[in-house]
Amino acid sequence: MNKDILIKFNNVTFAYTSYEDEEESVNTPVLTDFSLEIPRGQFIAVLGHNGSGKSTAAKMMNALLVPQSGSVTVDGIPTSDESRIIDIRRKVGMVFQNPDNQLVATIVEDDVAFGPENLGVPPEEIRVRVDNALKAVGMYEFKDREPHKLSGGQKQRVAIAGIITMQTDCIVMDEPTAMLDPRGRKEVMDTIKMLCDELGITVVLITHYMDEAVKADRVVVMNDGKICLDGAPREVFSNVELIKSLGLDVPQATELAYRLNKAGFDIDFNVLDEEECAGAIFSLLEVK
Amino acid sequence: MIKDITIGQYFLGNSFLHRMDARMKIILTFALIIAIFVCKSIPSLLLMVAITVFLVAVSSVPFKMVLKSIKPIAIIVVFTGILNLFYVTGGKTLFEWSFIHITTKGIFTAVFMAVRIICLVVISSLLTYTTTPTMLTDAIERLLSPLKVFKIPVHTLAMMMTLALRFIPTLIEEIDRISNAQKARGADLDSGGLIEKVKALIPIIVPLFVSSIRRAYELADAMDCRCYVGGDGRTRMKQMKLKGSDFVSLLVTAVLIAGLILLNHYFTKVI
Fold first, then answer.
1. Could you give the residue range(s) of every CATH 3.40.50.300 domain in chain A?
2. Is A5-238 a domain of CATH 3.40.50.300?
3. Low-confidence residues of chain B, pLDDT below 50?
4. Percentages helix, strand, coil for chain A, rounded to the nearest 5?
5. What strand order describes the sheet that includes A5-16?
6. Given an 8 Å threshold on Cβ–Cβ distance, is A96 in contact with B236?
7. Model confidence at A53, in pLDDT bands (50, 70, 90)?
8. Which of A86, A89, A88, A94 is nearest to A156 (CA)?
């Protein structure tokens, strides 16, 4: 097991004291005594209902927010060290929910070049990085287009390409598929899979969709600023009752098997996707 | 429909105007605009018209689009023409009736002004037809960069322009969405007099501001994440290099402007 820890939360406490997004109101504690270790190369999904602190935790991973007590370190650098903030953001990039609010340029390729331009990368190398990143996310043929003429999924892939060009070790995604249609969601999920499998980038995916979380190496379920469940998807989603009591769903395949089980059938409900579920039902029918 | 709008009025093409360095294009456009107002004799004005026609012809911008750029100023052209016709006096009087005097100089001035305004608009719209907004803001940033000496934040201004251009279509979509939402709630946006109509805009403008401010915060976070710290230490993917052809254009323009001045000098000035 790779024990190289990239991001480490150490007993972090955080409360919002002013305006922020609609999830949190005035003086609300968001994270209490929160600890989490993210090893390099892992694809980790963070689940939790609104206000569970998952977005706050995400923003702490690249020093957009710093903990009020405790510490967050990225590759050993504490995020509270203002002088090294650029070093941290070179290691951890972030993709937000609304694709419209994170694209800065009027041409796709100029936007993708924005990050490395800020880092002072030589022009010829930016060109190479931009072309590679756009090819990686499958948006190369759109490089001269205007972002507002793209679909949501395409815009989000451009945003991801904009982080890839910065060659960060980790990409944190805060509900990147929440505003997309099913097709866009699939495009983005395929891209995310490609990031970890082919580019070896650590991915932290914050999501509402259980079917997306299933694809991760590890699932963390948050509730009221604390971690409730942490483990491989199969392990986590076997706690169907606990997950439901937190106001979350389990993947649809798990749900079906679980209900069959409750209805008295002898079926293992520890299944994650359609295929496994079909297999379980098949063996159930065969026994009969 | 709204999704189809193009920012600015760039027309995709590959003419030599499209390929010309944007900085050079801006400078030459300004030079020509000044030259327009130097023309005071008939041959010099004709040369100016010829230059304009030539530029339109080689720009590969359809003639229809050029006409479209003149349309909104047609009324101004007519108005200045008429004004000059009646108010400029001098030369031979051709027609006189009570307070109306029409003189040769008046006619010349009217025609000159009309032609000048049309040339001005055509030449400056050729600039925006053949240059993308990104190239324009880039070029403006670089042309103004000497002003940094006077502590003018040139990069910040250029960044603001870029972001403004980037968010125009986004905000148009937003306005569309908000006005539909308000209509669905029974807001009446279309009837009533001017004052009622302006008042009816309030339920659109207030949410628009709120959402824009929220967008601004998110955009700032996103830019922070991408290590934006202002203009210092930034590089550019697209380098601007002056090519040989740009200098040829500069030379040709200089010769033409010299020609205009000479034509002015050797022929009678009619205005």
1. 5-238
2. yes
3. 1-3
4. 40, 20, 35
5. A28-39, A5-16, A69-74, A77-78
6. no
7. confident
8. A94
Question: pTM score, two decimals?
Answer: 0.81
User: What's the average model confidence in pLDDT over A119-143?
Assistant: 93
Domain locations along chain B: 2-144+240-266, 153-225
Facing B222 at nearest CB: one of A101, A120, A166 = A101
**Measured distance CA(B93)–CA(B194) in Å, rounded:** 46
- pLDDT for residue A160 is more than 90: yes
- For the four alpha carbons of B79, B81, B82 and B83, in that order, the dihedral sign comes to positive
Q: Is B191 on the interface with A (CB under 8 A)?
A: no
DSSP, collapsed to helix, strand or coil, labels residue B91 as coil
With cut-offs at 50, 70 and 90, classify the pLDDT of residue A221: very high
CB contact under 8 A, B234 and A118: yes
Which of B6, B224, B234 shows the shortest C-beta gap to A120?
B234
pLDDT score for A1: 41
Q: Choose the closest CB to A89 out of B134, B218, B225.
A: B225
Say whether A93 and B4 touch across the interface (CB within 8 A): no
pLDDT at B133: 80
d(CA B45, CA B51): 10
Chain B closest CA to A221's CA: distance in Å? 25
- Compare all CA atoms of chain B with the CA of A128 and give the residue at the minimum distance: B237
Compute the nearest-CA separation of B62 from chain A (Å). 21
ipTM: 0.84
The reply to whether residue B219 touches residue A102, judged by beta carbons under 8 angstroms, is yes
Q: Do A148 and B170 touch (CB under 8 A)?
A: yes
Does residue A25 register a pLDDT over 60?
no
**Contacts with A167 from chain B: Cβ below 8 Å:** none
CA end-to-end distance (rounded Å), chain B = 48
Among B131, B225, B239, B240, the residue to mutate for chain A (most A Cβ within 10 A): B225
C-beta neighbour count of A99 within 10 angstroms: 25
pLDDT number for residue A20? 56
pLDDT score of A284: 82
Residue A248 binned pLDDT confidence (cut-offs 50, 70, 90): confident
